[in-house]
Please model this.
Amino acid sequence: MGEPHVSPRSPFSSAELTNEPILASRPAKPGSGRIALPHGRTEDRAHRDGRTVLDRWLDSVVTTPGLTAIRDPDEARRVLLDDAVRGVPLIAKEDGPIVDVGSGGGTPGIPLAASLPSREVTLLEAERRKCDFLERWTTELPNLRVVWGRAEEQPLETYGVAVAKALAHPPTAVEWCLPLVRQGGAVLLWVGASADEEAVATAAAQIAGQVEPAPTGFLVVRKTGPTPPGFPRRVGVARKRPLA
Ligand SMILES: C[S@@+](CC[C@H](N)C(=O)[O-])C[C@H]1O[C@@H](n2cnc3c(N)ncnc32)[C@H](O)[C@@H]1O
Model:
């Protein structure tokens, strides 16, 4: 493992790991093939069959076996696309390349890449089959790349922002994500209402991270110093012996 590659799919729906979607991308006009994005921006580069790349990606995620348990197109749009786009204003405030850790079928990374075309977005995914699916979308989104591998085995302090949705129990997700981020950068987690912010703060404090105020449905952890010696821990340890 370790080489960039591509592809995938995603289940999830634990209330702790995900959150209630809210706004975002509806067709600007029915049948217009354009998707309205925050701040009045419009994603309009996809054209095949008159549909945006995000519309086609969404269809593919739902119809490709093994990527998501969601079968209803409206629910897929709400959970996989609209909810991802809610993070755009938070990420736009941060500098540097973005990594989506445990991207699965491509959320939130693919909607973020389409929404922030000047930012490099890396989809990091442990399962090769999912990477093969993800790679298909790099031809249409030039700022998108795919890395097949585990978070614990990646080069440290490479990105400005690490994002994750439904990756793991939040303290474990922070332990995997924070070492990937440069000092001064941030981790942004999509979380459900039951997420334990105190546990995340306790874990973050042990790996040079500090929880910052964030909108409902998100946890933001700022990287305040270098990754301490001993981290990242060996593959499997963060899940087996969480920091909090
Ligand atoms: C539940 S899925 C969520 C996928 C996507 N983010 C979503 O919300 O649909 C979690 C994904 O994280 C990947 N994963 C789990 N642990 C990982 C790790 N340590 N490094 C990279 N990917 C990991 C799994 O292979 C899986 O595809």
